[in-house]
Structure formats: structure tokens, C-alpha cells
């Protein structure tokens, strides 16, 4: 049974063996026979799953466990009584078909469980080729569904991808030397070389596209199987109120099937000859949440042709209607993409199709992330003046993620997006605006999370990015949120949302009320002024701990002094509190610092009175509280290649802006802050964030008298930060 029975055994695959008997042999003789069979295999270090069963026992096991039932359907004779094996397999298939309607929910639940556990092979950087959605196990499920006789499985388009995934699995077993089914990043280069791929990413793309075809085939087969199972109806009149089984639609389209399982199709095959047919089908299916008939998708793919340049208005309207459908867009886009329609309409889509992203923040390939961004933008369509431009910018925002583009992909993508929307038929002014949004789609998030909101240069940078227009700012704000939500939870946390919203609100007020030259800042948006005044009155530190979505928040205010930042960071690290994000500001000699930490409950954070007491001791010169973090830092071994330190030119006129990127660790902030103190520089504000284990920390530093450091002092500070990030110079506690 299993891969051995299907003649798909990998170089390191386990053997699934059944010693089948008719039940008439004495128990002792079976024991002796099984030992003579199994022991040579064990001695040869062959991994296997083995059992001794009668046909009735096989049927009983298949009835109890759906995974066992699926595996036994592949039963094949290796040696012995072929008639006994054939009869057993016939009985198993008969039982499988007889109980198919009852067991279908169990079978489909197993698919959902694997997706929840292993994820989607088409979009993972390290997919499990066997268990993930679209992997080898799904092909086994396709065969099992077809064996129920409730549905047939698609044949065209899935056999070749499946064979290719088997090749990749076999190469992975050979290169890794073990029964490895997850395509780990460390193995990709060797697997790609063995299979003849020029670039590792070419292998990843082929795996992604193959998994998509298999997953799409599973979706269609599951849908057909569900349709074959009658739905229970509670009220007798429900049968009379069902939607029609067939209706005509505009543009020569039809909708067939009952409610919840309806398909969009072509009334006549000749309709597919119209260049707009695919867009009409996609728009109707997405708008009403319908499935594109597999036959229709095949006909569209066989006859698709480039649209006129520029697109006619009807084509543009249908395309935008499809994009505006929210979550319904995903399966429709997938079907049209697999049919070859998308790349025919948008040739710019080809280079990013199935392109992997080597960034742990992202959960999807470039193209899937872009479509997900369109879906996330749906919630903003009523909040902007031009929802059509928001949708197009969302679709094309990462179109510049080409080999070698890296951090410059927004600038690379802007002219590509401009050419695409020109061809779609936008006016020159609208096309310019889409290109602007693509070019600046990272600007708001970067300024909000890594720059001082109170610095005029930060405000000026955002005003310049949106061309001084509040309507463009609204579009950029919506695109920023949609992009972050599509990337994953790490990219759109409550903390990041609050920072982005705060800066956007501040600049919107400038543009609407005071004009782009009004740099008045409402400090109450950034700091708790009441807390700052209390500290200023009596000179005593204050600590407040509050619950927040995604973790606790510590608000710490104290008289500003050299080393306060590092002392606070070290105190938290010594107490076992991991800082996820922080913003630090100084108001009239009082530092008011907000720290987001990884503790979900306020009770898990050190007591506010204890923290206050420790801060006062540190201010008085008692450094004992920092000894735990000092010892931890002395043992740190960061990856040198991950460390990047730079001065950000033009970010401020009144302070040096220094940025550090490296792998996060418990004592990092303490070490960085202490390194700046060691060279006598004061931290005016700091902006700390951690994404997918990577720290991105920005410091606005001045001389103790508030003057901006010169180039020599900047170089000194950068050297100190670099040594601290590499744990080469651990400061004394």
C-alpha cells in the first residue's frame, strides 16, 4: 500500500507493508512468517510500517480511520496469493463507495486539518511537498474522491505537475540523505542543481505553480463531490424557494447549478472568441461569488488573446468590478491565472507570477500577496475618492519585485505599473497617480515606524511623497494598511497601526488646515503630557502598565539623562521582558517612553512600583539590576552578516539619525543604548520595532547640549553601534 503500491516510492520513503492472510493459518505459523519477512528489512535499516491482517480486518480498519481507508485503496500484490489481494481490494472499494456520502465530511475535514497544519505549498518558502495543500497527499485524496464514484477528478493539467513534485521529492531525498519532504531553504540549491534548474528560485516557482494546479483540481473535485450529496432541508417549502438551476446573464453567459454551488459558463463556445469574454466571466463570478466552470476556463484559456491597446471602457469596467469583489476575487483570479488569461491581459504579471519572497514577514509569493492586497483594500473602497485607482495600485504595488531589485522595487515598479495602466486605458493624470502610489507604497510605513513624528523633516517627507494632496494621502494610507494586512500579522500589529494612523492624521491636518508648511505638532498625539508634567514637578520617575491588543504596554516617564534609554531597556531585559516595539520622546527635559512588550497579561510584567524603584537606583549609580543582561550579552553570538548600521542623511536638521538592522535578541537595545552613552551622545528619540525576528531600530541623537553631531561624531557613533550589534564590545553593567 502507499507510495510503494502506487509505484511512486522515493529514495528514502518508508515501506507500507501488509501481510494479508485468509485467517485459516495457525497463529504460530503467521508469527514465524512475519518475522522471516520483517527482520531482513529491519537489519537492512529499511523504515517501514507493517501489519498482519485478514481481509475483514482491513475493512474494519478502513471503516475506523479515514487515512487508513485511503491508503488501503492502493493495495497491490507484491508476492503470494494475487486473488486474495484482488478480492480484498474489491471489498475495500465496494465499502468505500457504499459509505461514500457518510464518510465524505470526514475526508474533507482531513483536508482542512492538513491545510491548517502544513499550510499551502504554493505560497510557502519551505513547503512540505507531501502534506501541504497542493502537495503529494492531495493527489492521493483526488484518487480517493474519484473512487467514491461521487465525482471524477480532473486529469488534464495535474498529472505533469504531480510528476514534477515527485521528481523534486526524490531529489530532496537524495541531496539531504534522509526522508525529508519539506523543501528547506538549505536544500534548495542542491535540489535545483540536481534537477537542472539554472536558479534556485526557478525551482521554487515550478513547485508553486504545480501545487496551485493540484490544489485547484482538489477544490473543483471537492465541490463536485459536495454537490452530489443531498443537503438536509428542515422546511418542506425550502425546495420550492431554491434559486433557479439555470439562468442567462449578459454578454452570452449562463449561470447553472443550485444556490451555493452555481457555475458561470458560456452559452456558446463561440463566445470565448470575444477578447472581453474572460473579463466578463471573471466579473460575474467574482461579483456573485460563483465558480468559473472548468470547461469554460479551459475554453477561455485556449482562445484568450491580448486586449486592444488601450483597453475599451467595457474591459476596464469589468476588470475593476472583478478587483472590487473582496474575498470572492481569490478563486476567480486563480482560475483565470491557471487558464493563462491574466498574463495575456497583463504581460507585466509574468515575472512576478509565483515568485518567492525571501522575507519572513511575507506569507505569500509576490503575485498571491498582490492579489491578497487587492482583497484587503476592499474595506477601504468607501473611504477614498478613487477606489478604482486604489485597487489598481494594490494589484501592481509589488510589480517591481524582480531579480536584483531588492529594496528598490518600488522605484523599479513605478514605470512598469505606469505602462500597464496606460494600456488598461487610464488617463495620463490617473496613470501618474497609480505610478506615484506604487513608487511610494512603503513610504508612510517607513516614516511612521522609523522616524520621529515631531521632526519637521519627517512631515515634509510624507507631504512630498503624496504631492501635497490630502486625497493622495488617503489613498496611500489605505494602500499601506492593505499591503501590511496582506503580508501577515507581523506587518500589521495594533502598534504599527497606531503609529501609521498618528503620522497620517498629523500630516492630513497640515494639508487640510494649515497647509504643507505648517509644522505645528500636537504633542498629545505622541506623548502623555500630563505624565511629563508630573515628573517635571517633583523629579520622580513614573511607570504605568496597561493592557493593549497583542501585548502589554509600559509607559515610563523620568527626568532625561545620559543612559536612561539603555538603563530602561536593560532593566526590562533583565526581568525577562522582550521588547517588541518602542517609541521614545523627550519633552522639556522629561523622557516619556512607550514600550510594547511580549507579555499578554499585565500580571506577567514586573510591578510598576518595582520598576520605578529600580530606575531610581540606576539613576543613583547602583548598577546591580543590569548584571543579568550584561552576562547574557557576553554570551551572545549574533550572525555578523545580519548587522547593518547606517546614518540616514537628510532625515533631520537638528539630530543625527542612525539606523541599526540586525537579528533581535534580549539584550540588544541595552547594548545599543549603552554604546551611544559610551561615546557621550544623547538619545533625543528612538523608534524601535521587531518584525519576524529582525530588529529595525532608529535613534535620533544629539550632543548633551542638544547640538547636532558633526560627521566625525556620527562615524564614532556608528562604530560603537556596530560593535554593540555584533556583541563585540559588551559594556559594563
Write the layout of secondary structure elements.
Layout (H helix, E strand, L loop, with lengths): L1 H4 L9 E6 L6 H17 L4 E6 L1 H10 L1 H7 L9 H17 L1 H19 L17 H12 L11 H18 L8 H11 L4 H29 L17 E4 L3 E4 L6 E4 L10 H12 L2 E2 L1 H10 L9 H11 L5 H11 L1 H5 L20 H12 L9 H10 L12 H16 L3 H12 L3 H8 L5 H10 L4 H18 L6 H21 L14 H10 L3 E7 L2 E9 L4 H11 L4 E9 L2 E8 L10 H12 L7 H8 L9 E4 L8 E8 L4 H11 L3 E10 L2 E9 L8 H15 L8
Parallel strand pairs: 1-2, 5-6
Antiparallel strand pairs: 3-4, 4-5, 7-8, 8-10, 9-10, 9-13, 11-12, 12-14, 13-14
Helix pairs in contact: 3-4, 3-5, 7-10, 8-9, 8-10, 9-10, 11-13, 11-14, 12-14, 16-17, 16-22, 17-19, 17-22, 18-19, 20-23, 22-23, 25-26, 25-27, 25-28, 28-29
Q: What would you say this structure looks like, in words?
A:
- Strands 7-8-10-9-13-14-12-11 form an eight-stranded antiparallel sheet.
- It is 50% helix and 12% strand.
- The N and C termini lie far apart (64 Å).
- The radius of gyration is 31 Å and the shape is globular.
- It has 733 residues and is α+β, with helices and mostly antiparallel strands.
- Strand 4 and strand 5 form a beta hairpin.
- The protein contains 29 helices and 14 strands.
- Residues 366-472 form the HD domain.
- This is Bifunctional uridylyltransferase/uridylyl-removing enzyme.
- Residues 553-634, 657-733 form the ACT domain.
List keywords for this structure.
733 residues; alpha+beta; eight-stranded antiparallel sheet; four-stranded mixed sheet; globular; Bifunctional uridylyltransferase/uridylyl-removing enzyme; nucleotidyltransferase; repeat; UTase/UR; multifunctional enzyme
Amino acid at each position: 500500500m502507499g507510495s510503494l503500491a502506487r509505484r511512486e516510492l522515493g529514495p528514502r520513503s518508508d515501506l507500507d507493508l501488509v501481510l494479508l492472510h485468509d485467517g485459516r493459518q495457525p497463529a504460530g505459523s503467521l508469527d514465524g512468517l512475519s518475522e522471516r519477512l520483517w527482520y531482513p528489512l529491519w537489519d537492512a535499516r529499511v523504515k517501514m510500517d507493517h501489519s498482519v491482517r485478514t481481509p475483514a480486518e482491513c475493512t474494519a480498519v478502513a471503516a475506523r480511520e479515514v487515512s487508513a481507508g485511503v491508503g488501503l485503496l492502493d493495495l497491490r500484490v507484491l508476492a503470494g496469493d494475487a486473488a486474495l489481494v484482488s478480492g480484498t481490494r474489491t471489498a475495500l472499494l465496494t465499502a468505500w463507495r457504499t459509505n461514500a456520502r457518510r464518510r465524505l465530511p470526514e475526508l474533507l475535514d482531513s483536508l482542512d486539518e492538513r491545510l491548517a497544519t502544513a499550510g499551502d505549498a504554493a505560497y510557502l518558502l519551505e513547503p512540505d511537498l507531501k502534506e501541504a495543500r497542493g502537495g503529494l497527499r492531495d493527489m492521493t485524496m483526488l484518487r480517493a474522491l474519484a473512487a467514491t464514484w461521487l465525482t471524477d477528478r480532473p486529469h488534464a493539467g495535474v498529472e505533469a505537475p504531480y510528476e514534477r513534485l515527485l521528481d523534486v521529492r526524490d531529489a530532496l531525498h537524495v541531496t539531504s540523505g534522509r526522508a525529508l519532504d519539506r523543501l528547506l531553504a538549505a536544500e534548495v540549491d542542491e535540489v535545483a542543481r540536481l534537477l537542472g534548474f539554472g536558479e534556485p528560485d526557478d525551482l521554487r516557482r515550478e513547485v508553486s505553480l504545480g501545487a496551485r494546479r493540484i490544489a485547484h483540481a482538489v477544490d473543483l473535485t471537492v465541490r463536485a463531490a459536495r454537490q452530489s450529496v443531498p443537503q438536509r432541508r428542515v422546511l418542506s417549502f425550502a425546495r420550492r424557494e431554491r434559486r433557479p438551476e439555470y439562468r442567462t446573464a449578459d454578454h452570452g453567459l449562463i449561470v447553472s447549478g443550485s444556490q451555493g454551488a452555481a457555475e458561470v459558463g458560456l452559452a456558446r463556445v463561440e463566445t470565448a472568441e470575444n477578447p472581453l469574454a474572460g473579463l466578463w466571466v471573471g466579473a460575474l463570478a467574482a461579483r456573485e461569488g460563483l465558480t468559473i466552470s472548468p470547461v469554460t476556463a479551459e475554453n477561455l484559456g485556449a482562445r484568450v488573446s491580448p486586449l486592444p491597446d488601450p483597453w475599451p471602457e467595457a474591459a476596464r469596467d469589468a476588470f475593476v468590478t472583478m478587483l472590487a469583489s473582496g474575498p470572492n476575487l481569490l478563486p476567480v483570479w486563480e482560475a483565470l491565472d491557471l487558464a493563462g488569461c491574466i498574463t495575456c491581459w497583463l504581460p507585466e504579471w509574468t515575472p512576478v507570477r509565483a515568485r518567492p519572497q525571501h522575507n519572513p514577514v511575507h506569507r505569500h509569493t509576490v503575485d498571491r500577496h498582490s492579489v491578497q492586497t487587492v482583497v484587503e483594500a476592499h474595506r477601504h473602497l468607501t473611504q477614498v475618492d478613487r477606489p478604482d485607482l486604489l485597487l489598481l495600485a494594490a494589484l501592481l504595488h509589488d510589480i517591481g519585485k524582480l531579480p536584483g531589485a531588492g529594496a528598490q522595487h518600488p522605484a523599479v515598479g513605478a514605470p512598469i505599473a505606469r505602462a500597464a495602466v496606460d494600456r488598461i486605458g487610464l488617463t495620463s493624470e490617473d496613470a501618474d497617480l497609480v505610478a506615484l502610489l506604487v513608487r511610494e507604497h512603503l513610504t508612510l510605513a517607513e516614516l511612521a515606524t522609523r522616524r520621529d513624528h515631531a521632526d519637521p523633516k519627517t512631515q515634509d517627507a510624507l507631504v512630498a511623497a503624496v504631492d501635497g494632496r490630502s486625497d493622495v494621502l488617503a489613498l496611500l494610507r489605505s494602500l499601506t494598511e492593505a499591503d501590511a494586512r496582506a503580508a501577515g500579522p507581523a506587518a500589521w500589529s495594533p502598534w504599527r497601526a497606531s503609529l501609521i494612523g498618528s503620522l497620517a492624521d498629523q500630516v492630513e491636518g497640515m494639508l487640510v488646515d494649515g497647509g504643507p508648511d505648517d509644522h505645528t505638532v500636537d504633542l498629545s498625539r505622541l506623548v502623555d503630557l500630563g505624565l511629563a508634567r508630573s515628573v517635571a514637578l517633583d523629579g520622580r520617575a513614573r511607570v504605568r502598565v496597561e493592557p493593549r491588543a497583542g501585548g502589554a504596554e509600559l509607559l515610563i516617564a523620568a527626568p532625561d539623562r545620559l543612559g536612561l534609554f539603555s538603563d530602561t531597556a536593560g532593566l526590562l531585559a533583565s526581568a525577562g521582558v522582550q521588547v517588541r516595539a518602542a517609541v521614545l520622546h523627550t519633552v522639556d527635559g522629561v523622557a516619556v517612553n512607550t514600550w510594547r512588550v511580549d507579555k499578554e497579561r499585565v500580571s506577567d510584567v514586573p510591578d510598576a512600583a518595582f520598576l520605578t524603584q529600580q530606575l531610581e537606583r540606576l539613576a543613583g549609580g547602583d548598577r546591580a539590576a543590569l548584571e543579568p543582561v550584561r552576562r547574557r550579552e557576553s554570551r551572545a553570538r549574533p550572525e555578523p552578516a545580519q548587522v547593518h548600521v547606517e546614518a540616514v542623511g537628510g532625515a533631520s536638521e537638528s539630530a543625527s539619525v542612525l539606523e541599526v538592522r540586525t537579528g533581535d535578541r534580549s539584550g540588544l537595545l541595552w547594548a545599543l543604548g549603552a554604546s551611544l552613552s559610551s561615546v557621550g551622545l544623547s538619545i533625543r528619540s528612538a523608534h524601535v520595532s521587531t518584525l519576524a525576528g529582525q530588529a529595525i531600530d532608529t535613534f535620533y541623537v544629539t550632543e548633551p547640549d542638544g547640538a547636532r553631531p558633526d560627521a566625525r561624531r556620527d562615524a564614532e557613533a556608528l562604530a560603537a553601534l556596530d560593535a554593540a550589534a555584533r556583541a563585540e564590545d559588551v559594556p559594563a553593567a
